[in-house]
Amino acid sequence: MKRLRLVLAEGTALVKPGTERAPDVAAFIHSFGWKGKVFDATSGTLINRLGIGGTQAVVAKDNLGKSLIDGKDCIVLDYSTTSLAARHIRDEIRMIAPDTYLGPVYWTTRSSSTSR
Fold it and tell me: What residue spans define the domains of the chain?
């Protein structure tokens, strides 16, 4: 597994996939909330694109690691040292098809418990 090169990645938030409202929720989030990420392999970081204009904000470090789901290799997006607002977030992504990545987002608490 290798780091992603410098790339602007369009994103889709999947909330309750398979339900009737899932496409509407995804479209709303993409329009007004999260649009995707910009990865920079040189610095080992990424920055999220947020809001109507895709303003770049909320930096994370990208590292190779093991998934909390099954222990397999994944790209871990760690906000714990780069963002006060998102310090409890951990993203994991894997390539599921050429140029297509998918992964869960975790919210960690001070007690070190992790939830999806």
Answer: 7-115
| Averaged pLDDT of the chain | 87
pLDDT band at 116 (very low <50, low <70, confident <90, very high): very low
- Give me 81's structure tokens: 């040292």
Cβ–Cβ < 8 Å for 65, 76: yes
Q: Burial level of 35, CB count in 10 A (0-12/13-18/19+)? A: buried
Residue 28 is predicted with a pLDDT of 94
Q: What is the rounded CA–CA span in Å between residue 23 and residue 12? A: 10
pLDDT at position 113 over 50: no
CA dist 61 → 28, 31, 34, 69 (Å) = 27, 25, 18, 20
Rounded to 5 degrees, what are φ and ψ at 67? -70, 140
Q: Is 34 left (phi over 0), alpha (psi -120 to 50) or beta?
A: beta
